[in-house]
């Protein structure tokens, strides 16, 4: 049993490392591409905030991965949970490697959910899958990019109306950029109340924590953003303001990403740890904090060791993105992802960001987007879960025979 | 990682502006050739006229590159057809300049009356204005998109387009005047001189014609 726990911890940590190296770096790349932050700064921001997001806000999604997809009461043998978790982690890794080879934008989240469902079905048939939860999760995958797109569309429209159409765009940007940053902190403050202080009432969270924090941040940012621009071109001034503002939203993205994606790596680890330490009764106990910390640490290490390179490459490729657009993408995607992790829905950060980019494209805000990406994402929705499930099922079967 | 490198395609506007740069220098070089032609400095004129031809080739090459990069899979802020047709028209501006240069090289302008030469030179100068305005228009179009299609920027673009139209109008007037002059002086000119002058005028007025067509396309880009 202890050997298996060690194996899962190692696998989970590697998965967290991979998430940090790739996904986290990708989520920050809009900010790097728009030259809001350098890759080095991105590593520092991502390292700290991915950890914070995972540690403070990562629990609900982890619980969903650990015991929301499958009905744990139908598993009587603790070994099944151990083998299954390892199989799911391995399957997700294998599928991610294959998909990367074919250039499909598959999501770590979708792979791990597929892997868990796969071993569950092999073990106890389709009845073990909590289908209503599964339907909810799958629906959230389709909805999250769409909501991201709608949000980005309207925020960008609001930008044009409230900033670009004004007589003095720079002055408007000076007022409006702290407003959006403040709004981000309303969301963060509310999440803090619900997740860390375990508050129950959403209204109290928004009014007592979210809004006051938002106002404080608004005032601080307003005072920090100075009106000193040598350029006579107002648009360059606006972009310069949002370049500073984007530092904050890129941190917001990292926080949201950590909150949602840490579960992919440590959800299975948490399941194995629970049965290893307390037997099947352990599944009733909430995820211990140190596991969340381990996941967060894994992500941070991934960002620090390999993410730098990814950000540098991707940042160089995204040259057409200006700061107002980058800000809109970051803000919309991070808000959607944080809301999803509050609801305990494991969604794909990457897909949500792509959705936000498309939304700006629909608002005629980006000069050229490759439409093929939408097709690729839709394909990945239909392929990832069954394939990761099959791989996981096969590995699980082998473990059951050998073990 | 592939998602990101795939997602953002290159904007066609920077290359379009680069193309406009070359088109503008083609027309400017042609104007230089016209100046020498006017002064009767045939050797210098020949050198410059050949340069016009070379610049037109460069413009062609950029045009091809832009066309290749504009896949139908792109989602753009403006319709792909509009960009392609605009590019075609902008390129025709350089083509027209090259045609004029070719006609200049056909023969020495010994029999051409000074008043005719005056008008041709004037047409050349106005053509530069048209080419400059086209360049301005495409730079401004980039700005229109940058601003998220705000009214102020669109209005500025319309002003530039109107400028192009008025230049075209002026050249049309000069062209008509020139035709009249050729026929008024019919007995003093050989048929060859007449043919020569009228073709220079026709190709020259083509420059602003195509500039106007290009401007027309920009109008459509904004109205999508």
Brief overview:
Chain A has 403 residues and is an all-alpha fold. Chain A has helices at 2-33, 39-57, 59-68, 78-102, 108-124, 131-164, 169-196, 202-224, 234-278, 289-317, 323-342, 349-362, 372-402, and one strand spanning 368-370. In chain A, α6 (131-164) packs antiparallel against α7 (169-196).
Q: Can you offer a commentary on this structure?
A:
The complex is a heterodimer of chains A (about 400) and B (about 220). Chain A has 13 helices and one strand, in the order H-H-H-H-H-H-H-H-H-H-H-H-E-H. With about 400 residues, chain A is mainly alpha-helical. In chain A, helix 4 runs antiparallel to helix 13. Chain A is globular and about 75 Å long. Chain B is an all-alpha fold. Chain B has one domain: Up-down Bundle (Methane Monooxygenase Hydroxylase, Chain G, domain 1). Chain B is elongated. The mean pLDDT of chain B is about 90. The interface between A and B is large, with 40 and 31 residues. Strand 1 of chain A pairs antiparallel with strand 1 of chain B, so a sheet runs across the interface.
Can you lay out the helices and strands and say which pair or pack?
The complex is a heterodimer of chains A (403) and B (224).
Chain A lengths: L1 H32 L5 H19 L1 H10 L9 H25 L5 H17 L6 H34 L4 H28 L5 H23 L9 H45 L10 H29 L5 H20 L6 H14 L5 E3 L1 H31 L1
Helix pairs in contact in A: 1-2, 1-4, 1-9, 1-10, 1-11, 2-9, 2-10, 3-9, 4-5, 4-9, 4-13, 5-9, 5-13, 6-7, 6-11, 6-12, 7-8, 7-9, 7-11, 9-10, 9-11, 11-12
Chain B lengths: L1 H6 L5 H27 L2 H28 L4 E3 L3 H27 L7 H33 L4 H34 L6 H32 L2
